[in-house]
Design a protein that fits this description.
By secondary structure, the protein is of the alpha/beta class. The strands form 6 sheets. An 8-stranded mixed β-sheet has the order 3-8-2-1-11-15-16-14, sandwiched between helices. A 7-stranded mixed β-sheet has the order 17-18-19-20-21-23-22, with helices on both faces. A hairpin with a 2-residue loop joins strand 18 and strand 19. Helix 5 packs across helix 6, helix 8 packs parallel to helix 10 and helix 9 crosses helix 10. It is elongated, with a radius of gyration of 24 Å. It starts with 11 loop residues before the first helix and ends with a strand.
Length: 433
């Protein structure tokens, strides 16, 4: 998969734009066993060192599927399951423990080579998965408790915790745990900002089409209605992404761990290189309905008076209510935005407008969140560019939302006509999606 991101990972100035947003946050990086065995693994660990140098806290989780299969073949042992979701019999558990030890060692080697401290933890308390649909899963486990304080103490001391897919029950006996599940449980316990799943696949496909961005609500409907439409290797990660978002992790990334600089390109660019699943940070934003017309009009009226916003009557808002989204707190509308698609552009270009946040809620990142949400909605429709016209808030769009100033010739013909007729002389801002 080629890296077509606008900001190259080697461009330090490009990376530094994102540092204030991520500094001090926890990222869970879940690495499939096949990625640990790949030639790009050394580069991947170097990327982890870059994240740590920028003040981003990292917890590493790893799988062992490929390593169990290799050991089984080498020792001529039939395994009952290699991913930690089916039955784990005693011989398979023994191979899992050996494979886990080897993979963890390789991670420590890589981190040490990059000057990072690392520690293996026994922070995962597990219980047997038990008997499901009449089948005893023997030594397959699920997470019962995570020693959050222990892991946070390691992170606070500048140590990268490595969590392997072997948990321990109350008696200290080992149980095999699925690493996708483990990453989701860790994210919930540590209140992580991101989970980044690294596998030998470009991302999640639905009905054969790679998804660059998808909301958790849309993904949940796919899982419920047509789970087989998701490419098989991503089904486990998709299900655990929904669980993670439902328990508070805002964003989940699925990307190819074999791609050079892929991890940095995914984190430090607008476009990314894999699949982004997003959720809770937009939960207070919803599509407007006709019942919101008066509230939207009242909300934006002061902005219209100060000529911050183009004048719109209640009738005009009601006529185009399907274009509006609102931000709601305790059933009160405190912000709004509109998203208009140009018919002649066949969704190739959209316009953001009517962005307004009540003054009491300024400086809380709500305006930025509304613009990000509108851009994601536009991108889901296949839109390539988004424009915004502003007379007074153009610096917000350029410095915070990463729009650039453009000439009026970029406007579609219909919008150019209304622009000239308005006489507002608004600055024209554009962003590539």
């Amino acid at each position: 998969m080629s890296n077509s991101a606008d900001i190259k990972p080697t461009d330090l100035r490009g990376i530094l734009k994102y540092v204030p947003r991520f500094q001090g946050q926890i990222f869970i990086i879940a690495v499939d066993g096949s990625i640990v065995a790949d030639d790009n693994f050394a580069n991947l660990i170097t990327d982890v060192a870059v994240l740590r140098s920028l003040g981003i806290k990292v917890v590493l989780v790893h799988g062992i599927g490929q390593q169990i299969e290799e050991l089984a073949k080498l020792r001529n042992i039939a395994i009952s399951d290699n991913i930690g979701t089916g039955v784990t019999d005693a011989p398979t558990l023994d191979l899992a423990i050996r494979a886990s030890s080897r993979v963890t060692h390789l991670m420590i080697e890589g981190l040490t080579a990059n000057g990072l401290k690392a520690a293996i933890t026994n922070s995962i308390r597990a219980i047997p998965l038990g008997i499901l649909r009449g089948v005893d899963h023997q030594f397959t486990g699920k997470v019962d408790r995570i020693d959050r304080d222990f892991i946070q103490q390691l992170i606070g001391s500048g140590v990268v915790p490595i969590v392997n897919p072997i948990g321990f029950d109350r008696d200290g006996k080992p149980l095999r745990v699925n690493s996708d599940l483990l990453a989701a449980e860790l994210a919930e316990a540590l209140q992580a900002t991101k989970i980044i799943y690294l596998s030998p696949f470009n991302g999640m496909e639905i009905a054969g089409k790679l998804q660059h961005d998808i909301s958790v609500d849309t993904l949940r409907k796919v899982i419920e209605a047509k789970p087989d439409s998701i490419n098989e290797p991503m089904r486990s990660k998709a299900a655990h992404a929904v669980k993670a978002i439902d328990t508070g992790t805002p964003r989940i990334h699925l990307l190819d761990g074999r791609e050079l600089d892929g991890l940095l390109a995914e984190i430090f660019s607008n476009e990314g290189v894999g699949t982004l699943i997003y959720g809770n940070e937009y939960q207070q934003i919803r599509q407007a309905t006709k019942r919101d017309v008066r509230a939207i009009y009242n909300l934006t009226r002061s902005g219209m008076k100060r000529e911050e916003l183009r004048a719109r009557s209640q009738q005009a808002i009601e006529k185009n209510i399907e274009q509006f989204y609102v931000f709601e707190i305790d059933e009160n509308l405190i912000a709004c935005i509109s998203l208009h698609f140009f018919a002649e552009e066949k969704n190739a270009m959209a316009e953001i407008g009517s962005l307004y946040v009540m003054p009491f809620y300024h400086n809380r990142g709500i305006g930025h969140k509304m613009v990000e949400f509108a851009c994601l909605r536009a991108k889901e429709k296949g839109t390539k560019k988004v424009i915004a016209l502003s007379t007074q808030a153009f610096s917000f769009f350029t410095s915070v939302c990463e729009f650039t100033e453009a000439e009026k010739e970029v406007l579609p013909e219909s919008r150019l006509k209304t622009y000239d007729e308005s006489g507002r002389n608004s600055k024209i801002l554009i962003k590539k999606l």
